[in-house]
Fold GNAT family N-acetyltransferase.
Amino acid sequence: MMGLLENDVISLRALEPDDLDLLFSVENNTRFWEVSNTLAPYSRDLLVKYLKNADQDIYEAKQLRLVITRKSDASILGLVDLFDFNPQHNRAGIGILILKKYQQKGYATNALEVFVKYAFEHLDIHQLYANIPVKNTGSLNLFNKCGFEQIGIQKEWIKANGKFQDVCLLQLINPKHL
C-alpha cells in the first residue's frame, strides 16, 4: 500500500539535520535567486536554525518544504515547497527544484503529482499557484502537464541579469471544491 507522500517512483520526506549541505548549496546558488526573491547568501548557522524549526506546522510557519527522494535507493532528487500559505483564503504557492543531474527523467512530474495530491487531500488546500518566468519553458510544461492553468502574465515581474522579465501565473483549484 502506498503512503500519502509517495508513489512507486519517489517519496517526499521532512527535512533532516543531514540536509544542511543540500540546503546550503541550493539556497546559495545564485541561479535560483531570481525566482526565490533571495538577495544575499545564507549562512550555515542560519540554515541550522531553519532546520531546527522545520517541524513547525504549516499554520505556524506558513510554508512547508519537503525533500524529494528516489524510492529505489533514497537518492536526494530535489525539494518541493508550499509557501505563502494563507489559511483565510486556503491557498499557497508551490515550487519545485530538481537537482541538475536528475532533471529530464520524470522525477519532477512524479513529485509534483504526489505533492499536489497531499496538499489537496490531506491539507485540504483550495488553490495552489505558481509564478514561473515565461522563459522557463521546462517548468511551464511541467505545471501544465500536472493540470495547472495559466491565468495571466505578470509584466516585468522579476529582475534577472539586470533586465525585467515577464512571469506566468498558473493556478490549480482543488477539484473537490469545484
Notes: Residues 107-121 form the longest helix (15 residues).
